[in-house]
Amino acid sequence: MKAVRNERFMKVTTYLLLIAWAVFVVFPLYWMLTTSFKSKLDVFLGPKYIPWVDFKPIVQWWIRIFTVEREEVIRPLVNSIIVASISSLLAVLLGTMAAYGLTRFKFKFGPLRNHDILVWIVSQRMMPPIVIVLALFLMFKVVNLLDTRLGMTLIYTAFNLPIAVWMMRNFLSQIPISIEEAAMVDGASRSQIFFRVVLPLTLPSLAATFLLCFIFAWNEFLFALILTFDKASTMPILIASQHFQRGPQWWDISVMSTVAIAPVVIIALSLQRYFVKGLIPISK
Amino acid sequence: MPMTNILSSFRGKKAGRAFILPAVIILLLLTIFPFLFSLFLSFGKVSFLGGLQIHFAGLKNWLRLFNDERFYNALSNTVLIAVIAVAIEYVLGLGLVLLLNRGVKGSTFFRVLFFLPMMLTPIAVGYMWRMMFNPTRGPINHVLPLLGLPAVGWLTEPKIVLYSIILTDIWQWTPFMILILFAGLQSIPPALLEAAKVDGASGWRLFKEIIFPLLIPASIAAILLRTIEVLKIVDKIYILTGGGPGIYSESMTLFGYNLGLRAFDLAYGATIAFSLFATILVVSIIFLLMTRRSQEISLE
Q: Min CA distance, B118 vs chain A (Å)?
């Protein structure tokens, strides 16, 4: 009897703690989303919590961002989409090739073997961006890549390569090699095997890696802050500049932030299974 | 032996190199070269009069750094944020993972929700919390007096501002600890836990003697990766306080940006950046040495 009661007590406590953390996670998001539907007065006389109860939600700011402020918002949004997509595609393609090379061939560059090359590539991700970005500023200035989508695409490709190599190596090393041998016996060339046999087999992993790279590129701030001024600015730069340009117009900032967050939330929700799977090797 | 077989038949060196070369070239050009260039800059002086010129300046930048109070301020802010944030994130992450593992209904729902914050654009997260912390219109300072507590100048009090930043970091990055520790917990063979339960181990003893020791590798990975990341912190601070009040919340990266680009002294900025790189390297090495020893002890 006592044990049963104890068990029930444990269960209730577990739920309460989980719900408490869930509230902590959700509340700031809720606050931002509701602020995007508040009138100026409701923001300044705030805090107002529940729509239709203590404030009347309006869609004015959402309409405005796609009409009056369209010019200002559309370019960073398009830049973000283009730069993040293309750089992630490149990172996944080049990263998968490198991962394939590292799992299927033996390398020897001086004292460096496969494992050393892998560690070298992955450890690039540890480097603080500020170290390379100041030098990149000068390099990009010399070759006229400052404030261009091409420059941002290149730097995000390099920024995401270590992750792509790491993830794809884990996935590729799980593919039985006999499939490739069979193709080889049939006379397929190495590039045919890679593009026609290996890539189709890893399609879900490729998609997961692409989306993870996309999130990183989409969210990145420091490179964009230093290497773009206007033409190639991305969404984080647009949002960050809001406060300095017009003071805290919380309703506008909330709308823009929600727009910036929405695609990442969708990706994250659809991907969560893969992250756990792909990360299990790290934790061993 | 199919493995050696295919490796030898794949040993055609050119083909192998063709696969890794593009990635290596990109990294050499866009990471290694700028890295070395930056190191070189820290011993130089950049001028734009009559085109870009870089003069050798010896140890000038480094001597200036070691006599710069703002450097020690940024360094201690950064390390303080890292130590406190990572410690709290780890404890919370571990606790939440154990709760999620109790087989409650809806644990998948909770897990998905708990992972979410780390995916969100840090700039947006910064604004989100700036609204939360707002002294007069933010919900936190609205609720505190109702609970009989004083309102707090979250982003304006020099002694408090770092903790506000830490809270924001905890909100966004505890999910990372949950993710890695959850993956670590998944890789513990269930048979092992069953056997321990049959032997009468439960609750605290099960955790202390079975689960925690098996989670040590995952814990080390999670703590190290998170420490490295948080030492680079900049975007949320940029939005929350801009390093203020004054420079009370300036981090190393923000300091490097302010001096390197705002004040446009690229050489000094590179010196600051390199000192951050050295800090991260030293912290990682010390941490790995320390944990290696503790791992050996736990194996004994």
A: 10
